[in-house]
Design a protein that fits this description.
By secondary structure, the chain is of the alpha/beta class. The chain has 2 domains: 3-177, Rossmann fold (3-Layer(aba) Sandwich); 183-242, no CATH class. It has helices at 3-6, 15-25, 42-48, 61-71, 103-111, 124-131, 140-148, 183-192, 200-207, 224-242; strands at 11-12, 32-36, 53-57, 77-80, 93-97, 117-123, 149-157, 162-163, 170-177. The strands form 2 sheets. It has a 7-stranded mixed β-sheet. The protein has a two-stranded antiparallel sheet with strand order 1-8. The longest helix has 19 residues, at 224-242. The protein is elongated.
Length: 243
């Protein structure tokens, strides 16, 4: 199997989509951009032409070495052979043609961070989960995304826009940060939604918590605000239990 496929990497080769990403990011000379997945470097180069500084992370050491001769001319670029989600750089704009396997990690990571806006490419099915208001697609990641971000679907992107060609189409999203949450809240939110289908009262009993919420609601009927508030209570209770 192609190594890029193993890593979930599909290189963008469509200039129209590339230009759309750049336009949506609205990058100016005052912006610091963080990119996860340098890939073939074509997006990185365009970011460097516009931003004050670009930090681009590529976990694949072969790719990082391959693009260095081309990208080395940009003095405002910091190119890192590392997992971008394990670094700690300040930025105000996030731009990424995300490896499909890292999309959930990216949303959770961004939920903890301070930034202004992000433009990301995700799998079409994953975008549907982020935007779901109810039903089987409404999950912890839906709550997290809708609580922390304003999300705009910019365009659908055909599988033919990438190499290697993925099996599914993608969606380009523009994300604006509203508020952030803690790692503990994210963990508790996922734990809460493991009781999906159960009533809130049932979940609260599991955690031995008496919260002032409508206990007859089922977990999947909670609004993002209600679900996050309950997750915060659970996170606090779990912290107190360890003291």
């Amino acid at each position: 199997m192609n190594k890029r496929r193993l890593l979930g990497q599909h290189m963008l080769v469509d200039s129209y989509t590339l230009n759309k990403i750049i336009d949506c990011a609205e990058i100016g000379r005052q912006d610091v951009v963080f990119e996860v997945g340098t890939g073939n470097g074509i997006l990185t180069a365009e970011l460097c032409k516009r931003a004050s500084k670009v930090v681009s992370c590529e976990v694949d050491s072969e790719l990082a070495k391959k693009v260095l001769p081309t990208l080395g001319k940009y003095s405002n670029l910091v190119l890192i052979n590392s997992d971008g989600f394990k670094t700690n750089y300040d930025f105000n704009v996030f731009v990424s043609n995300l490896p499909y396997s890292r999309s959930r990690t990216a949303i959770e990571w961004l939920a903890e961070r301070d930034f202004d806006r992000a433009v990301v490419m995700v799998q079409k099915e994953f975008a549907a989960k982020l935007l779901a208001k109810h039903g089987s697609n409404y999950r912890a990641i839906s709550v997290l995304a809708q609580y922390c971000f304003d999300i705009e679907q910019v365009m659908h992107v055909s599988k033919n826009s990438f190499y290697p060609k993925p099996k599914v189409d993608s969606v380009l999203l523009k994300i604006t940060k509203k508020q952030k949450v803690s790692k503990g809240t994210i963990r508790s939110l996922k734990l809460l939604f493991s009781f999906k289908g159960k009533k809130v009262s049932s979940a609260l009993r599991k955690f031995k918590i008496d919260a002032n919420m409508k206990s007859d609601k089922r977990i999947e009927r909670l609004s993002p605000e209600e679900a996050v508030r309950l997750a915060e209570i659970i996170a606090q209770e779990r912290l107190l239990q360890t003291i």
